[in-house]
Design goal:
The chain has 619 residues and is of the alpha+beta class. Helix content is 18%, strand content 25%. α4 runs parallel beside α6, α5 runs parallel beside α7 and α9 runs parallel beside α10. Bound molecules: 2-acetamido-2-deoxy-beta-D-glucopyranose (10 copies). Keywords: Signal. It comes from Podospora fimiseda.
Length: 619
Amino acid sequence: MHLAALLGLVGLSQSLSADDTHFHSNLNYHSPSCRHDSLGINIPLVSRRTLKRGAVPYTPDQLNFTHGVASGDPYHNSVILWTRIAPSTASDTSNTTVQGSVDLYNHDTEKYIQADPNPICVDWKIWPLNNNSSSALTSQGKAYTTSDIDYTIKIEATNLSPFTSYNYQFTICNSQKSSPVGKTKTAPSPDSDDISSISLAVFSCSNFPNGYFNAYGNAARKNQHDYVIHLGDYIYENSGSGERAPLPRKIIFTLHDYRTRHGQYRTDPDLQLLSASSAWFPTWDDHEIANNGYRDGFSALNNTEASFREGGRLVSVDQRKMNAVRAYFEWMPIRQVDLDDNLRIWRYFKLGKLIDLIILDTRNYDRSITSLGWNDGYIDLIKEEANRSLMGPRQEKWFYKTLVQSKERGAKWRVVGSQVVFAGNTMGGGGRDNWGGYLANRNRTLRVLGENGVRNTVFLAGDSHQNWVSDVPALGNSGYNSTTGAGSIAVEFAGTAVSSSGTAGPISSANNNARTQVNNNHVLQWQEGYYRGYFLLTAGKDKVDAQFFGSPSVATRNSWDLPLANFTVMSGENKLARPVAGGRVEAGALRGGNVVGTNLTRNTETGQWSVVGFPKMYI
Ligand SMILES: *[C@@H]1O[C@H](CO)[C@@H](O)[C@H](O)[C@H]1NC(C)=O
Ligand SMILES: *[C@@H]1O[C@H](CO)[C@@H](O)[C@H](O)[C@H]1NC(C)=O
Ligand SMILES: *[C@@H]1O[C@H](CO)[C@@H](O)[C@H](O)[C@H]1NC(C)=O
Ligand SMILES: *[C@@H]1O[C@H](CO)[C@@H](O)[C@H](O)[C@H]1NC(C)=O
Ligand SMILES: *[C@@H]1O[C@H](CO)[C@@H](O)[C@H](O)[C@H]1NC(C)=O
Ligand SMILES: *[C@@H]1O[C@H](CO)[C@@H](O)[C@H](O)[C@H]1NC(C)=O
Ligand SMILES: *[C@@H]1O[C@H](CO)[C@@H](O)[C@H](O)[C@H]1NC(C)=O
Ligand SMILES: *[C@@H]1O[C@H](CO)[C@@H](O)[C@H](O)[C@H]1NC(C)=O
Ligand SMILES: *[C@@H]1O[C@H](CO)[C@@H](O)[C@H](O)[C@H]1NC(C)=O
Ligand SMILES: *[C@@H]1O[C@H](CO)[C@@H](O)[C@H](O)[C@H]1NC(C)=O
């Protein structure tokens, strides 16, 4: 059953008292949904608690901006700004499991945990890039935070100008203590036709214990993008060990666990750098909640009473989802597009008439059963069934309608942010846990593109920890020619991980594996699994360029950045331009082209080029 339906609605009073205004301006009190029992925070109660306890406010020296600043989900006139201001870097333990429960019961210690009654007040302001003269100040406001939302602050800065870069900053009220200055950018006006190009830096799969987030740092230093897209697996729920051991040091289940994990990830200096310097469009994959999720469970948690027997995890699938989702909304600069639907993060951004960005949730929203490690035979039996859906009927309907609307409004490019790989049946995940396990859903998508003449569609994907670049032929592959690209109706750029493991072993075995993949998948034009990294997608009126970059090693924090391959899609051609990648890539396997293997990398701090071989890829 759908989580929203399970939770039921509660009629929270929406009336604002003057005292509550600054609570309300912090969107995280609505996080992720003020209308759902257990998820939203009862602001009048928090506000009354403050008055009743005669709270003694913190002094500025008792507080810190503990995790930098971030911004995201830009509209043409507003953007989300984020920070955390707290008496400690540690996340708060007062995990609200019951709506309105102010003093919370800790089942481990059998004691009530007192929520911190002292609201912390911050002033925020936003001004045009590099012009902080008082006359240039564009927008400002005040917001409160408390332990109820882990001391996070998330506000919407409004009255901004389209496609404009801004600086912003938070300051503790009545003090000089300020956060770092962040940089962000609004979207173009939905109908503006005069934007010549927009660049998106695309990331996925940033596993903290597995390695350093060098790809984030490199992109931030190069500063060639307008916006960041993170396709998910932004955090991982697993346990682990080693020099970047995860906190807490175990698989995570509780709200406190998820908050602690998000907090640890945001200590990474390269994540802080990219967060402070760009507006992000975040979405989640499975690991923001747990591995191989679907509507009723995860690979390592069944929604059965066995989960509550001895040795079980003692948490229901829905409770765990709520914990993860709430921490996600607290810690990410993302909008809640539908307060009635806490799992909804599929959404649509009109970046002028140049790009319509369609962000999907192919994972947690309403996905039919996936590969869970013990049911692969069953998935193979059912994967062609028409009623299987990767997105659920509501999201599917919205997706198809949005594709057609986008064409009708004359947007030049449709960029679809999927998590899992779309093209081919077996690529990147064995074909059970990606679109290859939901063939009817993919067929329906291809039919919508084909029958409505939706053109200039670019699929993005992450999830697989390897690079896969493909043509997307029309439904049934009829007439597709992998040499010329004839018969293709879209393209896919599926990127490697920021730091999660790709193929094991030396580059030679990764390249051999890539050759096998290209030979076995006729739509696949380039495959590469050795390097960690990201790609830059630049859309103009005539073409889209995709430049892939590799991080030679994530075993250390370093600034080496290796150009791997460049692709072009000409407007109206709906296929990768030939010769694909100019006939030449750095690594992997290119259909009908050469692999040069120069190891020529550029240091994004010094600008220096050099041949750098790194023996060790991961921590
Ligand atoms: C704030 O940060 C400074 C510098 O890292 C540290 O010395 C101080 O203890 C922190 N204060 C609090 C309340 O966390
Ligand atoms: C509440 O948080 C504590 C840690 O502070 C944790 O041990 C406990 O399991 C949590 N309870 C729930 C229901 O999440
Ligand atoms: C803002 O203005 C002050 C005073 O002119 C200057 O010292 C400071 O560097 C400026 N900061 C930014 C972020 O522009
Ligand atoms: C800063 O903004 C003010 C107010 O809009 C404007 O008058 C001034 O020219 C700007 N200065 C710079 C350096 O852009
Ligand atoms: C979930 O149930 C399946 C089928 O009974 C079982 O094989 C698997 O081990 C269970 N997983 C967990 C984590 O209990
Ligand atoms: C899906 O359709 C198949 C027949 O193709 C049927 O056996 C199955 O019960 C259906 N599943 C659901 C969830 O409706
Ligand atoms: C998908 O479409 C192809 C081509 O029409 C067809 O052969 C295949 O059976 C379809 N699969 C499903 C699951 O609908
Ligand atoms: C693909 O197109 C090329 C170039 O026109 C042609 O030589 C080749 O025979 C075509 N392949 C197929 C399978 O039709
Ligand atoms: C891709 O383009 C970049 C920038 O133009 C260039 O430096 C690089 O050599 C190209 N890479 C390949 C593999 O052609
Ligand atoms: C590139 O680096 C890899 C890994 O260190 C090494 O195996 C390979 O020989 C190097 N290739 C060149 C052309 O230097």
